[in-house]
Amino acid sequence: MERVYLDHAATTPVDPEVAEAMTRVLRETHGNPSSIYAEGRAARALVDGAREQVADAIGAHPSEVVFTSGGTEADNLALRGRLKVEDGRDGLVTSAIEHHAVIDTARDLAAHGQARLSVIGVDRHGLVDPEAIREAVDEQTSLVSVMHANNEIGTIEPIEAIGEICRERGVTFHSDAVQSVGALAFDVRKIPVDLVSINAHKFYGPKGVGALYVRRGTRIATTQTGGGQEKGRRTGTENVAGVVGLGVAMRIARERQTSESGRQSRLRDRIIAGVTGRIEDAVLTGHPTRRLPNNASFCLAGTEGESLIVGLDLEGFSVSSGSACTSGETEPSAVLLALGLDRELAKGSLRVTVGRETTEAAVDSFLAALARVVGRLRSATAVTV
Question: Which of 87, 221, 226, 245 is the most exposed place for a label (fewest CB within 10 A)?
Fold first, then answer.
């Protein structure tokens, strides 16, 4: 059975050109980038080249790019590192639908008395109201963190407006752009954001490497001590092959962004129309138009997320769900609950995210399989009841 992968929001396959570049580094370059002899200089040149590729893709200066182990570390460095340098200001404002790497970090900082946390709600489409941010920011606010696009429901947040408010109030603004960089045009010269988290494996790069954009003049402290790499902002010997892979993946994503965004948007809309048209009581989650080009997310009444994943897996399709089975009981996603959805409905969440290799034929096959799976699950539920 030929499988169809439809979970690109979770991770993407490594692009062959990326894999080739990384393999070449692993075979030919073994020096430590901090060493001043020839092998070290060769490794340093590769790291600097990748830094320039990442910077070029987002309109930044290379010195503003800090390599990390991924999006989670970038988020932690942004939040913990920013609050660590503040003297007296400990206010942290974020939204109710942030990725765990942000919201859990924010709650941990608050629990340990390192931040005074304000969590802003969203509307039924998952949008943060910039005016709610304005009202939450006060003289003691150090940092606002609002994601660019939500990983579960695909809603694109108004970070331009939020950033302008932060700039007016003299507050640092961080955005987790893990889902959007590589999929959408993102230019830090046009968006008033000070800190941006990036993750390579979301745009066909390797796992275990990412970056934090730090606008010049924005102070952050390292969250770990060691050798002082990355200008003291993130210590530890650089993952040379990984950052080369990140750089190549970023270049490819930038080159293909316009064409792929349009193509994937058409596939996304085909899925949305097919699911809402074929599946009774299917509810689209996230904003109907202001959403990532590859993301289609739903709640399907009379089903549970884990059962949908298993049923579709047996049909040859890889998808995701915001619901999780804990101790035998399905727990709905906190993101979906923040939208105001009923708990029972939210348990039947389904996320479908297309990618470069997804075809119209694959989408049509998926829609037919989903109808079969939902029919079986609802029949089983009816018999049980």
Answer: 87
Rounded-to-integer distance, Cα 164 and Cα 193, Å: 9
Furthest C-alpha separation in the chain: 73
- Is the pLDDT at 143 greater than 90? The verdict is yes
Residue 247 CA: distances (Å) to CA of 4, 205, 212, 288 = 27, 8, 13, 33
Question: For residue 55, how many C-alpha atoms fall within 13 Å in the half-sphere facing its CB?
Answer: 17
State how far the alpha carbon of 142 is from the alpha carbons of 19, 95, 145, in Å.
Answer: 40, 15, 10
Average pLDDT of every residue of the chain? 95
Q: Which two tokens stand for residue 170?
A: 């003299």
What does the alpha-carbon distance between residue 274 and residue 271 come to, in Å, rounded to a whole number? 5
- Identity of residue 186: F
**Cα gap 14→241, rounded to integer Å:** 13
87 vs 329: CA distance, rounded Å: 45
Burial class for 27, CB neighbours closer than 10 Å (0-12, 13-18, 19+): exposed
Q: What is the mean pLDDT of residues 92-112?
A: 98
Tokens encoding 342 = 């009923």
- Taking the alpha carbons of 51, 57, 62, 63 in that order, is the dihedral positive or negative? negative
Q: How many Cα atoms occupy the beta-carbon half-sphere of 138 within 13 Å? A: 9
pLDDT score, position 385: 46
| Listed residue (271, 278, 287) closest to 355, CA to CA | 271
What pLDDT does 327 receive?
44
Beta carbons within 10 angstroms of residue 19's beta carbon: 16
Catalytic residue among 110, 117, 325, 334: 325
Does residue 299 have an active-site annotation? no
Per-residue pLDDT, 323: 59
Averaged pLDDT for residues 302-315: 96
**How far is Cα 128 from Cα 34, in angstroms, rounded to an integer?**
43
Separation between Cα atoms, residue 63 and residue 80, nearest integer Å: 20
Which pLDDT tens digit goes with each residue over 246-255? 999 999 999 9
Instruction: Write down all domains in the chain, each with its CATH number in brackets.
Output: 4-10+257-384 (3.90.1150.10), 16-253 (3.40.640.10)
Q: Are 73 and 242 in contact (CB under 8 A)?
A: no
pLDDT at 335 exceeding the cut of 90: yes
